[in-house]
Amino acid sequence: MMKQRYKDPSAPSTATPEIAEACGSRRVRYRVTAHQPPAAESIAGSTAASVFEAARAALLPEGYPGSVRPEYIRFQVYDTIQAACSYLRAILSTGAILKASGVGEAAASPMAAAVAWVLRDGFGMCGSLLFASLVGVGFDENVKEWRLFADLINDVGLTLNMLAPMAGERFFLVAALGSTCTSICGMVAGATRASITAHFALSGNLADVSAKEGAQETAVTLVGLLVGSYLFAPLVGESAPAVWTAFALLTALHVYANWQGVGCLALLWLNRHRAVLASR
């Protein structure tokens, strides 16, 4: 015959609850312990760690930091800053071009604005093709110089786009020159990025480093989209002094970030200039 005996409920709460079972001369005692749920701090810490690891896996190469060059993360930080500056300035310059094209005016022709926009981009593409045919062989030899050139010519192009509405009858010419400069930037930056990515790929992981570079650019674009739409554009508004002040500050930060980013690159191959310095 089995009997169960429960501890007196009036016992002090500090005592551990017990259950006793008796079967003839055999007695068994069980201690009842309450399940303790995880603390809120541990749950929050675990969630933050999971988010951090997911971001790390999406944005950094496999095996980081051992799979890339030591200057990788510093260069990427400056590259992210300059990319964000370019995106925010592109919002301002595109708004200036669209406004000058008649967008938002009742008397403006949508088809005329579309044709002008397409022609402007077409002239820019032709200019970049001509530039590539003239200087395309020198990108691998002078990666740092061409990378700086790409971003500086982008600054020139965006500035021309900002000035185009003030050009009057020469609006289309100035806008086409601005588009040409930004197209050249895209072509030169893409060429130098290939060499820089190959330099960073320390463990034969060129594809992984290149993929994470694209993921970082996408993340910067998404952040720039949110900041530009909900914070930057309403803050600047339609005031010309505010627009030009923001544009000038972003341009200065863009130049600084590019200079610092290119300066931290420790390229391993010699070009003519580095060979002369090494021979001294």
Concise structural overview:
68% of the residues lie in helices and 6% in strands. By secondary structure, it is mainly alpha-helical. It folds into two domains: 2-31, no CATH class; 49-279, Growth Hormone, Chain: A.
Detailed description of the structure:
By secondary structure, the protein is mainly α. The protein folds into two domains: 2-31, no CATH class; 49-279, Growth Hormone, Chain: A. The chain contains eight helices and three strands. It has helices at residues 40-59, 72-100, 110-135, 143-163, 171-200, 206-236, 240-263, 272-279, and strands at residues 2-6, 18-23, 26-31. The protein has a three-stranded antiparallel β-sheet, with no helix packed on it. α2 (72-100) packs across α6 (206-236) and α2 packs antiparallel against α7. The termini are far apart.
Supply the key terms.
three-stranded antiparallel sheet; transmembrane helix; Protein root UVB sensitive/RUS domain-containing protein; Growth Hormone, Chain: A; RUS_fam; UVB_sens_RUS_dom; 8 helices; transmembrane
Largest beta sheet: strand ordering: 1-2-3
Structural domain tally:
2
Portion in helices = 55-70%
- Provide the CATH topology of the largest domain: Growth Hormone, Chain: A
Largest sheet: 3 strands, antiparallel
Describe the global form.
flat
Using only CA atoms, what is the Rg?
A: 31 Å
By CATH reckoning, the class of the largest domain would read Mainly Alpha
Secondary structure: number of strands? 3
The overall pLDDT average reads 81
What is the structural class? mainly alpha
Low-pLDDT segments:
none
Terminus-to-terminus distance: 101 Å
By CATH, the architecture of the largest domain is named Up-down Bundle
